[in-house]
## 1
Amino acid sequence: MRPLRYERPADAATAVATVHDNPDAVFLASGTNLVDHLKIGVATPGMLVDISHLPLDSVESTADGGLRIGANVRNSTLAVHPDVRRNYPMLTRALLSGASPQLRNAATTGGNLLQRTRCVYFRDVSTPCNKREPGSGCSALGGYTRYHAVLGASEDCVATHPSDMAVAMLALDAEVLVLGPDGECTVPLEEFYRLPGDRPDLDTTLDRDELVVGVHLPPPQTTVATYRKVRDRASYAFALVSVAAELTVSGGTITGCRIAFGGVAHRPWRAHRTEAALLGERPGEDLFARAADAELVDARALDGNAFKIPLLRRTLAAVLRDLAGFHDEGVSA
């Protein structure tokens, strides 16, 4: 049996120092992801540093009109928070699309952001996986690829990031609040995640001794926004594709939009090319198709997931059609 030490630090700074001083230590929040991986031998730390009791469980308004969300806020709590439901409806929809009610009651904001980008081969210790054992190979290439990436993949990894919440937060220009040995810093969520390249074992830009303590959401730009997830079954399934989008239309012209995709890349994917194609144009089916194609020009399908490209194109068009219609009707999504 592998020995496993357990520490319960009194504060966040002590937690960071403990992980910094112990190379085999990892942070533990609710454990919905980590404990699973401990059980099957995917994760093999020597020490768990429990941060689940730390006072990082509040949702507070900020001076700029945004929100600060503590890392230990539960997904179910955040989904129904009045400020989130009123001002960030796409985030509520994304949270309620994730996992099962039981898991949402346990999972935390910080833990959700930090769950491993993975596929079925990552969880199967009998198969080669560059994320689990760098340099061993990628079993998905030539294998089962229904859920795998069509954007941003590499020859070393084609897994997709599983979070729904992170896709909505990316579209909302969220910033991650991080505490490290040298103090606290802020990391834009778009810079928080890495593409696989030749180091797919590294999911984020964090050092191992840096702790997520919260998330800052800037002031809302519009409440005409939504999150749509397409999956194989209605509950407890990762996205085949998902779209988080908000749209502002003034005088019949799109004057603002923020869009992110899920289920298609190693990290939540900000659709900058789509946004650029939409701005300044009149909403319409031809425009929506061109905007999707602008983002998908570099998409590369595998043998088992070519359907994702037209599926994402249709899902994006449907979401934009709905949001444009809400403007016409004068109501919020």
## 2
Amino acid sequence: MAKQYDVAVIGAGAAGMMCAAVAAQRGKRVVLLDHATRLAEKIRISGGGRCNFTNVGAGPANFLSQNPNFCRSALSRYTAQDFLALVRKHRIAYHEKHKGQLFCDDSSEQIIRMLRAECEQGEVSWRMPCKIGSIEKSDTGFHITAEGGDIACDSVVIATGGLSIPKIGATDLGYRIAKQFDLQIVEPRPGLVPLTFDGPSWEAFAPLAGIALEVEVSTGGGKGKGKKSGGHFREDLLFTHRGLSGPAILQISSYWEPGTPIVLDLLPEMDVAEELISSKTTVKKQLGNVLSQWLPARLAEGLLVANGFAPDARLADIADAKLRKLGDAINRWAIVPTGSEGYKKAEVTLGGVDTRELSQQTMMANKVPGLYFIGETVDVTGWLGGYNFQWAWASGYVAGSSV
């Protein structure tokens, strides 16, 4: 005989635990299932182990989706301030960092313990580790075959996350379940991920690994129906052995379309061409030495070599037109990535269950009553900086309030 519950939540991560806790505290009989042996590993490793658990400025503009308005309802019903109230209730000390990002003072384990305690308050049943065999729908609800015995329930919530960081257990289970019930999927791909470069155009920059600086980065986004508009960020850039990383690149990677350039302004406070031209009469220096006043010396030399300039050339001897070309190469450096570091280094998965298949008020599938999708499984992806956790809390809350 299958054990009877009101709600089965598949996936005990951020969204799943939030949903289970909210539903159980409403009096629902909830079972939470997860295939992992350790609870909420993605929370544990986030923010360098201190969990960047939300962002005070989180709003619809900080999220990507083929339907940008879909997230509006959930984010307005469960805000960063609502989650902060929960954090304070559990006496977790926190601090605000760069651009509204909130972190635990101590450890991400505190957020995991908080969510676990909220689930215990509602007497959630746990099955972990537990492999799911199949999910079938009938007139009376759902039947789940699973390790530890079959489950019968009125509602199923899919909170299995995306494909990013497979080494901690990411799978495509959520997408397979969506396809089983004929729901459309927006093609998943890595998001918030370092970008890679190779070929002759990158040779001068390959030795620059370890150099970091604040830049502005932008991309035009895609063209045509359903494509993302361009992104624009001012953040830190890091040169790596294989390409570019750092917050600036992670942010723009979610907007980047393969085959198109990203545009970097390496000195956003300065019009480099004008500065070089106006310095010609007053500065009797080599070009490399002048640039090294504004940029890391190794980067200055790499840029000069890549653009056909001798670092030891005298600034006064170079034509204005050539200095304008160099200024463009620094203030508007357009380069085409050859790829990304993939899911192994991606912080999130772009795409997922098409939001047109779901109710934005409840997260339930429009054509499968009782089946819900939340968190990263859905085609809603936040910026770097606590936004994806806020989507997990918000989507989990609205589903937990509705099941």
## 3
Amino acid sequence: MNTKKMSVLLSSIMICGIVAGCSPKTTEAPKDAPATTAPAQTTSKPKETVKLKFFTGKVETVDLINTMIEKFNSENPGIVVEQEYQKDASNVIKVKFASGDIPDITTVVEQDYIDQGKYLDLSSEAFWSRVLPAIKELSTDVKTGKQFRVATNVTTAGIFYNKKIFNELGLKEALTWNEFKANLQTIKDKKPDVAPIFIAGRESWTLGHFIEFLPHGIIKQTLGVNGSRKAFINNESDKLAFDAENGSIDTFAKRLLELKSAGLMNGDALTATYDNQKEAFATGKAAIISQGMWVLGDLLKINPNIQNDIGFSPYPSIQDGTKPVVLSADDSRYAITSQSKHPAEAKKFLEFLIKPENLKTYSEFLKSPPAFTDVSADWGPLKDQVSQALKTGVNIPFTDTPSGFSGDDAGRMVQDVLAGKYTKTIDFAKAYQTAWDKAWKATHK
């Protein structure tokens, strides 16, 4: 082979080698070689933890719910529930809805927000077959007939009194205002170191309850449960008559000032706290308080020996021609917000809370009967007295208030009454009407 041909051949070999080196290899494996599988390429990101925001204004159950949340979180990897408690929850939730910091599940349920579609419709959930019919009725929106909330318990509120003091002084449960005031006067005269009735005026919600149970109680017994709910929700002012002279609100303010002027309440009624109230009653330094079953657990913690000395009766009628009342309502309400990014996980947490074993624990802690028929709980020592009170007094629900006028807002107005802001009680009644109307109109533009 001549030199020229040799050069061409070598060049061709080099080019082929270069091309082969740059091309993918397709050489077959030997027939007897073991089969191999290429490792799968992992491109999906790990699943993020879902954080559920639980917003509540129920102070009595914060610690218990935290314990239950720990259990739920441990049983449900990938979901973390975080509880937020706010003292003035009804007003705080307004800010949350407005700012976009929206909880997934909450105990704060307002009619205005139901009207605005802020809550998820729970009507088709399976758990309703387990709920007491009366509680399901109270959980039903009067406008749409749907259920946007569920209550886990039944609660009652009325007059807690010290039976030992009553027996010692020969007093009986009071059903009229004159009887009630006479009892307080006897306690003041015979036991000067005991507050006849102890008011926790620094906690505005406790005074808001006075409004719900006493003057609103007149409206509720006059119009009935559904009739009064519609009147409150639709602001039927001719039926509510908040600003009427000698009406329910005016009469309530007069009765409250009667107690103050006669020295029948604790001298620090404006500054005393809920804790002060519980301590005073549990230790025998107060003969009467206005509260609900939610207080019972704390009273027994402070003084377990008081268990057999606690009496319970309806609120006396404050206006001639009306009857005594006792709160009988849905308690511990839960709703899932319609803007929740995690409705499935929120339902899972709600289902956890209403499991029979968890509701039993909750009911016995709160000393409140369960609203679910498959839960048997030893909820407290006042069963018989509560049953009797429910037979004696007209049973009333909580008030459906406008979202801009919470029980705390009403309570702050009652603080003004005790502080002497109003020279005439009718001025308070008119101010109450104005505040209610303003809040209602703000959400019904």
## 4
Amino acid sequence: MRPNKLFVFAVLAAFVLFTFFQACKKGTDTTLINTYPAVLAAFGSNIDLNNLSNYTGQTIPAYITKDNSAADPVTNAGATLGRVLFYDKNLSVTNTIACASCHKQSMAFGDSVIQSLGANGLTARHSMRLVNARFAQEVRFFWDKRAASLEDQTTQPIQNHNEMGYSGANGDPGIGVLIAKLQAIPYYNELFKFVYGDSVITQTRMQNAMSQFVRSIQSFDSKFDAGMAVANNLNQDFSNYTAQENLGKQLFLAPPALPGAPGVPILGAGCQGCHRAPEFDIDPNAANNGIISVAGNPLLTDITNTNPPSLRNLLNPAGKPNGLFMHDGSINSLAGVINHYNLIAINPINTNLDPRLANGGKGQSLNLSQPQKDAIAAFLATLSGNDVYTNKKWASPFLK
């Protein structure tokens, strides 16, 4: 080869290498461009199908043993698709409402208002926090357990007239219309093929993917978890707790004194009986907690609400509530919640009051002192982590 040809060859080789490295610097993957151009156009570097976010390999403490994901285990690919569906406003008839509209990452995937605004009106109940939904014995979902599984739950808001509008009744299009709509969106063709091997969209595939994303949303970086990791014993004082927080933990875990027993010191509030540490999930056998009003209309009665979310991340890192409390959003502070449980009167209308709160028809009167109430609130505040509010793998993937 002549010297001038060697020179030309060297220049061409240098140009190719320069172009390749520049592409790498900009985060552009040539495989992704060629194979998933629509995904790249919609999400940019927020979703890299050649380097998926870690949803399956997250650290779960050894003391967390409850898990309702056996029928639909979390996968990196499925949760990635679920993340897109969760944040996509195309899932509503008006293209204005996504699951994330009512379940905000900044509020542990809850909402700040009593009733969330949907495509055609308000939700019937307060939108509950979704964090740690996986780590519970209960497999049913919604406040009233009407969904047999999280998979069943994920598409019910889509098929609700007020929420996302694909009810298939009273002039609403059905979910089949939504599926045809999504099938025409290029990034869904690529994503469904990536996850399932072909681009066919079905309700079951949507449900599985969204459930995997929701179950991936976990929080185990709280002060409680740091203390539990060292003590490995719920009933032992945590070395990283204040005296007030340890008192609150003791009161939370211990059963209350027998009602009416004179001179018996108040050693417990009995919270653990229903909200079971260390997952802080609800006992599947729990009945109504004494709150029976309907969200938005306290003059109406609803006694079917028995399935609250985990007590984890009740407060944000600044110590402010992640929205309102109870299915009707009727309580706005931990102090208000504790006061409710401190004194529950018998209401003859409520035929579904949990027996542990009914006390044989006498109602619940814990007689907690103010310092004890404050201690329980301080303990509940230790159940909040930080990562769940800012981790990008749970944030909106859309560029716009």
